């Protein structure tokens, strides 16, 4: 008998129940109420800047969820750039976009943009912008947001293509460096934008070692990493230090894997096996030890691992999906 698809529970009114942790109450704006007949001051100044920059304002409206005012604009493509902290452009993805645009002769997916100086930054439209420039388009359509900080929130809202751990961590660390040199908020104030502290430390580590097996270490970091109340410019050095601690542990793991291979073990799960073998958290009750204490303990245990005491069935039991980056 085929399994039936589980549906979300509904209230007596027939509406789906609210998701756990979601407290947002949307505005009551109807479809005919979102258009703005008159622009508020913050939009008026922004609209004049767009026109001075050679662009055109196509509409002014309030987005229906929170009622925030936005502009729908046409911008000169040469004045729009990607933010420095989003993921790298994939040539294969740009090729798919250009082929689709060539076939349909249409561009129907506006980017999100914020204005900075006399240029416009898009935090989520890097592939679309690159494809348009590659095709020689002169104009890009954009939803222009007055608040500069929204550029840092797009990572949480982005549903374009699933990020792998490395892409997500690198986006976070690029955002971290950009913020540290500009708005410089406290780490704890960026919980939404950074998603989780582990991504920050992993991002700094990936900068130093692009092929780091971050998936093996992320579950441990989630237990012991945390955002501080320091401003990013001051906390940056600590993040780099934590990344160095993680990389030192990775070095020890790599050496342990090499010893196991020299002993005749051959498995795609050797790194995960070593990490699981030295990780004490799975046996601990209560709070995890501090970051440095835990990694010092695991690094020491990894360096002292004796391949002669490892049995083939131990490694076999650690099997599963090989770590995917």
What can you see in these coordinates?
- The protein is of the alpha/beta class and 325 residues long.
- The chain has two domains: 35-161, Conserved hypothetical protein from pyrococcus furiosus pfu- 392566-001, ParB domain (Alpha-Beta Complex), CATH 3.90.1530.10; 163-310, no CATH class.
- It has twelve helices and six strands.
- It has helices at 41-52, 91-104, 126-135, 154-157, 165-180, 191-194, 197-208, 214-224, 232-262, 270-278, 291-303, 312-317, and strands at 56-62, 69-76, 80-82, 111-116, 119-122, 139-144.
- The chain has a six-stranded mixed β-sheet with strand order 1-2-6-4-5-3, covered by helices on one side.
- A hairpin with a 6-residue loop joins strand 1 (56-62) and strand 2 (69-76).
- It is elongated and about 75 Å long.
- The two termini are 36 Å apart.
- Mean pLDDT is 88; it is low at 1-5 and 320-325.
Provide the descriptors you would attach to this structure in a database record.
325 residues, Conserved hypothetical protein from pyrococcus furiosus pfu- 392566-001, ParB domain, disordered C terminus, six-stranded mixed sheet, elongated, 2 domains, alpha/beta
